[in-house]
Amino acid sequence: TLRMSYQLSTSPLSQLFADASTKDKFGKQIREVIMQYCYRTGLLPDGADDKTIDASVASLNELDEAASSWSSLQVCSLAEVAQPQKPLLGCIIFYPTYSTWVGGRLRLGLVQCDSSQQSNQQLLYSLLRSVICRALDDEDLQRIELLHPASDAAVYGPLMQLGFEDLTQTEEWHFARLDRDGLQNLANRPAKSGIAVRAGAESDCAEVMKMIHGLANFEKLQAQVRINEDQLRRDIFGERKFAQLFIAECSNSGEILGYALAFDEFWPSGRGVCLEDVFVQPAHRGKGVCSALFSAVARDSLYNRRCHFMSLCYLAWNSAALDVYRHYGFVDITGSDSSKSNGAHFLRLSRDQFRSALGQAL
């Protein structure tokens, strides 16, 4: 049990940045936490200069920008009651995302605890209990997930003890990321004539659901698709709007050629976009449809959502997909293009394990 000198709180980032005084205080504390996380996980080398830090860690202005336009971005933090101005003892930044297999999920964008504290694991478990309880109370959330290096034993080990599954090990899921310059280049790619990309509509859901099954079948994971057309419609076009849907169609006939689905993502460098799905109908592959979808998502994320990067996941055996992603400028951050010891592993806790995880985190 934590001593009473520690205070646990959870708030939307927008609330922490509501006025100048709290913005300055919490902004600096959160940025310090992000820097600590980057040093601990190898995203920043020891002794990094200011230029390297600024390229890897979101600025106060970028955090403020995310706070003002991303209402579902939440911060769970631990601070010393007696010295609230000191650096935070721990922090989890989290937000809802979406899976076209199971529906709503909760993504932990960053998990950081002060490793110098003797009660480090207790601090971590207190943070995780708070976040898991919130997910348990929200029936729309079917999973909790995060990207985290397996080499970081101080966090990875406790997560495994709570029941998280390392999908990079069990199913070979890898993540790739495109930086801001690459995102800009992707946004500027011209579309081939005859292909138009528009925002998805409720009337597209029946056709999109067929393509979701087609994608899952290609990935040999068809049995994992649990949502139906009604849930897809509710989740994308209902009150919560978990993700953005993009439809590629023939400019002349209106025939649907493919789709993409994306949602906002947080990383130490700030706000980005995660491309959850990209699928092109088999008869229209190799004709520029995939490129048009990527470019449309990049433009929307840059100019409408002010994102700084794009990420996606893929199965390691799908080398053809990785070749396409590398062509666009993506870098594998799990293992192929980075140090495997510091590579980001995809970790997941399913809803049926939430309660047992809470029992473990005592």
UniProtKB/TrEMBL annotation:
<dbReference type="InterPro" id="IPR000182">
    <property type="entry name" value="GNAT_dom"/>
</dbReference>
<keyword id="KW-0012">Acyltransferase</keyword>
<feature type="domain" description="N-acetyltransferase">
    <location>
        <begin position="195"/>
        <end position="352"/>
    </location>
</feature>
<keyword id="KW-0808">Transferase</keyword>
<protein>
    <recommendedName>
        <fullName>N-acetyltransferase domain-containing protein</fullName>
    </recommendedName>
</protein>
<comment type="similarity">
    <text>Belongs to the acetyltransferase family.</text>
</comment>
<dbReference type="Pfam" id="PF00583">
    <property type="entry name" value="Acetyltransf_1"/>
</dbReference>
<dbReference type="InterPro" id="IPR051016">
    <property type="entry name" value="Diverse_Substrate_AcTransf"/>
</dbReference>
<dbReference type="InterPro" id="IPR016181">
    <property type="entry name" value="Acyl_CoA_acyltransferase"/>
</dbReference>
<dbReference type="GO" id="GO:0008080">
    <property type="term" value="F:N-acetyltransferase activity"/>
</dbReference>
